[in-house]
Amino acid sequence: MKKLRLFFSLFLALSTVALWAVDKEQYTIIVSLDGFRWDYCDTYDTPFLNAMAAKGVKAVMMPSFPSKTFPNHYTLATGLVPDHHGIIANSFKDRATGKRYSLGNAETRSNPAYYGGDPIWLTAKRQGVTTATVYWVGSDVAIKGDHAHYWHDYQKKPLLTDVERADEVLRLLQMPELERPHFIMCYFEEPDHTGHVAGPITRACRREVEHLDSLLAYMWNRISLLPEAEKINLIVTGDHGMAWTDAERTVPVKPYIKEEWVDAIEGDLPANIYVKQPQFADSIVAALANVDHIRVWRKADIPAYLQYGSNPNVGDVLVLPDMGWLFTDRKVRRGGSHGFDHTAADMHVGFRAMGPAFKVGYEKPDKFANVCIYPLLCHLIGVTPSPCDGSLDSVADMLISGN
User: Fold this and answer.
1) pLDDT tens-digit profile of 312-323?
2) How many Cβ atoms sit within 10 Å of the Cβ of residue 50?
């Protein structure tokens, strides 16, 4: 009986290994459409993305908090929530140096000290996989003193156009076999920009989303002609959704917060407030506690589900507006924004995947967290992930057994 149990134990162990065996000859491409709200494919005419769903997997992905561009793109790359990888917002105060990290400040934006975790282009490179990035957040920063094998400098202008980026993916896949990357990340700024300017459900946003769908079809049709086409996995997703905002839905700052309390306020969605003296945090929370359309917490009291507040650079007070509202004194025009509670539907992201590793015609029944993208990508390219907040188990149902 003991021998029989041992046999079955070994059989199950070997079966599990076989189930998750990885074809090292496969390629994986992940494309990010900034601001790719989960329902755009239901709202607009997107034949290519719809075909991806039919030939592969369709799902809804939940961003990490805050639902902003830099924090979430770097989360996709590391599997860590922003509070853990360090890019806690698009702008924040560095308490250790007193400097302000911001996307518009080349010095801080390019400083590797702010980028924690192990981005996948480095995870894979260390383990022998050739990698390439086309403008992915953080990929032009010398994190741990290194980059992907092939990368583009976001500070070098002019940037590649969207068509040139699609062509660059094809060029990389046409390189000689010994030089060719097996893993490529490619980033597009749209439809985020149009969503901000025009709003998420508008003719302008329709034009942009449908243009991107055509661009993806153009890229994939050319990839499909390559000898390696049947070995290529393609993922299309994004960083966050988009919600309507307008001038009628703002909560002003100055009527509630005294200047002498505040050292800095970074952002309006959410707002990280840094105080001049510790006691002023209580003053701010008391002043805002009963204001409609916002929630306010001391750093230590931020709800656990946001997974935010352990990083030293998070503000002493966090103000989070309700969906569609902003905490600001600036003039706001009608359009779109993001950064809201990441569990809200308008912030959720579309996800499509197809290729030899993915099931066909599978719609994932539950939403999954974007921290799971990193372990998924590591699995697809056959490398061991570094410690992260995500889990392959949460997305394993999308994969074909043996992949």
Assistant:
1) 999 999 999 999
2) 15
